[in-house]
């Protein structure tokens, strides 16, 4: 065994860099937090190539003296805590004194800084952890840090970085979070020389959300404010029924720190449970403030998670506060009555389902081919039996679509049919979605999509990032029946929609589409997959089919589907129990 040695600082810093700055967005986070800690009222973030080649964060905060400028690059050098007891009541973002030396150890790092009382600034250049120079420079009070060629000296780490787009998306999202949390600070974000947003000092949270996410999102939000001894929750949340396809606009802060932990998100999702359709996420910009003693921020090197001393109480408090707010906004109605009201846009399912059987073999559907459901040799396609084993035998239902006798609707969800071979329980929602999915998928495959021209074009205001995404993919959208015209900065007009889309849902659907493309959940460069993605999005949540005739038609139509067994999310559409099985059960 070789002798034990203390690692040289440079190596220790590079090791710490692996934890603190695992990717470009983490650098931005550390630098922006430092600027906020320094009391800045103006912060500018610039990056290139997803932050891999260049990051700059500039502020007008307190700045540093020439001596501190050098000291700040030493490991565990911090002006924010002095003794270990301070760890129990951390009021600043930083406290570990690790960020600057870590970043400087894996990049070409330039620090320029000047405090109020100095006449000029100090410039320090560190390359891969080695001090290259220190000299005077002219500058106004404040700090500017440039980080170039991140991880160039650590190829192993560079390899793990995602594409530039992905890294850029993270930086944009994070910068928006800090901007939202600090309306009193002016924020600018610049990507590859192009300003993505620039928000002056704002009067309040709503104004800041408006600046960054647009009026259409900000104005209808409802204000929330709740208090309990030692706890305070405040912010803005979406109205009942108004949801998003992603969590991008559900953001939470604990003592001003953006937090990605489970407790808060879970509590919010729970509160919206009856107020939003499945698979939709609420809009929320919520700030939880509690005594520094009630929360431990020192559980993650990048401080991305926090731990509450009393998780249960926090969850209860947040749920209660959000629910209260939602109930009031909904005017005291029982939540259940509201989930299907006009606030929830729903595709016009029953009317758009034409009882025309489609060719069951032709086509390019790439969804799993239906398994043979005839005979007992085939593996049972639907095995999620609500009753105990043995598994029910599959019946060749497709052969006899018309001799199902409708018995009734059970639990407001399942249509029960008597069939010559036994009985069938049909999940009407899954059946509807399955039909709608295939229907839309087929229409998306048409070379000439049928569109409906809108009498009154629908205005669409997007945040700058989404706006850039949309502009880039106008052609793709047009080829799928969405005719969208740019109309001023971050403004668009929906001129025509595909014929399968209810215009009342147009705006929401267009937003969802852009969000999906932005997050690369939908790839315009892979049309077949993209069609499936769009059809899946569009098939969610119709108004449920009711009435005997409609339910019978639903069953009949389902059996003409290419894959009638599962809905687009893979849930079974129906479930059969053979007579033999019934007889066996009753001895
Ligand atoms: P920490 O934030 O945990 O203290 P950092 O490595 O991020 O550690 O920063 C080290 C020190 O450098 C900070 O404590 C602060 O005194 C100083 N510093 C860093 N960034 C700035 C800035 N933008 N303005 C003023 N001082 C700064
Ligand atoms: Mg710091």
**What global shape is seen?**
elongated
Described by strand count, sense and barrel closure, the largest sheet is: 8 strands, mixed
| Helix proportion | 25-40%
Summed over residues and divided by their number, the pLDDT gives a mean of: 81
Q: What would you call the structural class?
A: alpha+beta
Terminal residue distance: 74 Å
Listed once per kind, the bound small molecules are: adenosine-5'-diphosphate, magnesium ion
* Helix segment tally: 19
Strand content: 15-25%
Radius of gyration: 29 Å
Q: Runs with pLDDT <50, length 5+?
A: 333-401
Total number of beta strands: 24
Which sequence of strands runs across the widest sheet?
Answer: 5-4-3-6-2-1-7-8
Structure description:
Residues 333-401 have low confidence and may be disordered. Strand 7 and strand 8 (194-199) form a beta hairpin. The chain is 32% helix and 23% strand. It has an 8-stranded mixed β-sheet with strand order 5-4-3-6-2-1-7-8. The chain contains 19 helices and 24 strands. With 587 residues, the protein is α+β, with helices and mostly antiparallel strands. The radius of gyration is 29 Å and the shape is elongated. The structure holds adenosine-5'-diphosphate and magnesium ion. Magnesium ion (MG) binds at residues 30, 33-34, 94, 99.
Which helices and strands, and how do they pair?
Layout: H1 9-20, H2 24-37, E1 42-48, E2 54-59, H3 66-71, H4 99-105, E3 108-114, E4 121-127, E5 130-137, E6 142-148, H5 155-159, H6 164-181, E7 186-191, E8 194-199, H7 205-213, H8 215-218, E9 222-228, E10 231-237, E11 243-244, E12 250-254, E13 257-258, H9 262-271, E14 281-282, E15 284-290, E16 295-296, E17 307-308, H10 311-329, H11 335-338, H12 349-352, E18 405-410, E19 414-419, E20 422-427, H13 428-445, E21 451-461, H14 464-472, H15 474-479, E22 483-486, E23 491-498, H16 506-518, H17 527-538, H18 548-558, E24 574-578, H19 579-585
Parallel strand pairs: 1-7, 12-15
Antiparallel strand pairs: 1-2, 2-6, 3-4, 3-6, 4-5, 7-8, 9-10, 10-15, 11-14, 12-13, 16-17, 18-19, 19-20, 20-24, 21-23, 22-23
Helix pairs in contact: 1-4, 2-6, 6-7, 9-10, 13-17, 13-18, 14-16
Bound molecules: adenosine-5'-diphosphate and magnesium ion.
């Amino acid at each position: 065994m070789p002798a034990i040695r203390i690692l040289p600082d440079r190596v220790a810093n590079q090791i710490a860099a692996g934890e603190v700055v695992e990717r470009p967005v983490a650098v931005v986070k550390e630098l922006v937090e430092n600027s906020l800690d320094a009391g800045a009222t103006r912060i500018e973030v610039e990056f290139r190539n997803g932050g891999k080649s260049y990051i700059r964060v500039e502020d007008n905060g307190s700045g540093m003296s020439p001596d501190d400028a050098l000291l700040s690059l030493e490991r565990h050098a911090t002006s924010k805590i002095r003794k270990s007891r301070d760890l129990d009541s951390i009021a600043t973002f930083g406290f570990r004194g690790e960020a600057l030396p870590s970043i400087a150890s894996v990049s070409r790092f330039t620090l320029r800084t000047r405090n109020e009382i100095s006449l000029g600034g100090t410039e320090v250049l560190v390359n891969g952890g080695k001090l290259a120079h220190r000299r005077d420079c002219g500058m106004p009070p404040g700090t500017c840090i440039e980080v170039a060629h991140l991880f160039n000296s650590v190829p192993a780490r560079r390899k793990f970085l995602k594409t530039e787009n992905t890294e850029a998306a993270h930086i944009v999202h994070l910068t928006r979070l800090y901007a939202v949390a600090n309306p009193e600070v002016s924020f600018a974000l610049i990507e590859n020389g192009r300003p993505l947003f620039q928000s002056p000092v704002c009067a309040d949270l709503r104004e800041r959300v408006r600046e960054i996410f647009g009026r259409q999102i900000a104005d209808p939000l409802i204000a929330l404010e709740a208090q309990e001894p030692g706890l305070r929750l405040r912010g803005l949340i979406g109205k009942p029924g108004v949801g998003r396809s992603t969590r991008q606009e559900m953001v939470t802060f604990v003592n001003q720190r953006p937090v990605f932990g489970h407790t808060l998100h879970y509590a919010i999702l729970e509160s919206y449970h009856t107020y939003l359709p499945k698979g939709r996420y609420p809009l929320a910009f919520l700030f939880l403030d509690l005594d520094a003693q009630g929360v431990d921020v020192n559980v993650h090197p990048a401080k991305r998670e926090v731990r509450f001393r009393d998780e249960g109480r926090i969850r209860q408090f947040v749920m209660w506060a959000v629910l209260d707010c939602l109930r009031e906004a909904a005017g005291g109605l029982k939540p259940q009555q509201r989930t299907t009201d006009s606030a929830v846009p729903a595709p016009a399912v029953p009317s758009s389902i034409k009882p025309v059987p489609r060719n069951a073999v032709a086509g390019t559907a790439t969804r799993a081919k239906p398994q043979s459901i005839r005979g007992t040799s085939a593996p049972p396609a639907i095995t999620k039996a609500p009753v105990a084993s043995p598994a029910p035998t599959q019946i060749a239902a497709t052969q006899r679509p018309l001799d199902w006798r409708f018995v009734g609707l059970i639990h407001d969800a399942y249509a029960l049919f008597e069939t010559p071979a036994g009985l069938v329980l049909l999940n009407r929602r899954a059946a509807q979605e399955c039909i709608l999915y295939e229907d839309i998928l087929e229409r998306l495959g048409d070379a000439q999509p049928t569109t409906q021209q809108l009498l009154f074009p629908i205005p669409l205001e997007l945040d700058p990032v989404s706006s850039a995404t949309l502009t880039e993919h106008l052609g793709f959208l047009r080829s799928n029946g969405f005719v969208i015209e740019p109309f001023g900065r971050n403004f668009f007009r929906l001129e025509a929609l595909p014929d399968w889309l209810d215009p009342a849902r147009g705006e929401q659907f267009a937003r969802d589409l852009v969000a999906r493309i932005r997050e690369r959940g939908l790839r315009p460069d892979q049309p077949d997959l993209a069609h499936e993605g769009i059809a899946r999005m569009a098939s969610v949540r119709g108004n449920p089919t009711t009435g005997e005739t409609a339910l019978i038609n639903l069953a009949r139509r389902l059996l003409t589907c290419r894959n009638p067994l599962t809905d687009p999310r893979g849930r079974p559409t129906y479930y059969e129990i053979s007579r033999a099985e019934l007889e066996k059960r009753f001895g």
